[in-house]
Amino acid sequence: MKVKLAEALLRRKELQGKVDKLSRIDKEDFLTVQTGRKAAHEGIDDIIAQVPLLTEPQLEASFDWHAKQLRLVDAAIQQCNWTTDVEVGGSVMEDYVEPVALREGTKRPTP
Fold first, then answer.
1. Taking a C-beta distance cutoff of 8 angstroms, is the pair 75, 50 a contact?
2. Is 2 helix (H, G, I), strand (E, B) or coil?
3. Quick one: which of 11, 13, 18, 58 could link to 54 by a disulfide (CB 3.0–4.6 Å)?
4. Residue 4: strand, helix, or coil
5. How many angstroms separate the CA atoms of 59 and 22, rounded?
6. Which among 23, 10, 9, 31 has a CA at the least distance from the CA of 76?
7. What is the pLDDT of residues 20-75, one digit of tens each?
8. How far apart are CA 65 and CA 67, in angstroms?
9. What are the start-end ranges of the H helices in 24-55?
């Protein structure tokens, strides 16, 4: 599938965000069932349970899929970086050379 470089760059940014978010999930906090019990009234207890929506294999599969897609789009962008020429002004690739007036300590020229 061919896409514009701008689209690939946006996709890379989107995938990087998802990979970052998935890598920050603390599996112990996220994947364990957490319960609590407190007295409500008249001998009836209120039970609260937090049950994860995903299993650990589902979470890992999601992370692995997004990380792989990120690597693939990044490789395509890097290939483009090394095989595509761009037009720049002639002085862009030159090194800075201090003007003679500045080297000799004379007054700085006004722009």
1. no
2. coil
3. 58
4. coil
5. 8
6. 9
7. 998 888 777 676 777 777 776 777 777 777 777 778 888 899 999 999 999 999 99
8. 5
9. 27-31
Structure tokens at 35: 């319960």
What is the SS3 assignment for 89?
A: coil
* Amino acid letter for position 31: L
Determine the residue type at 76. Answer: A
Tokens of 90: 């002639």
Q: How many Cα atoms sit within 13 Å of 86 on the Cβ side?
A: 7
Tokens of 56: 């650990």
- pTM check: above 0.70: no
Burial 9-37 (b: 16+ CB within 10 A, else e): eebbeebeebbeebeeeeeeeeeeeeeee
Number of CB atoms found within 10 A of residue 62's CB: 15
Specify the DSSP class assigned to residue 52.
Answer: -
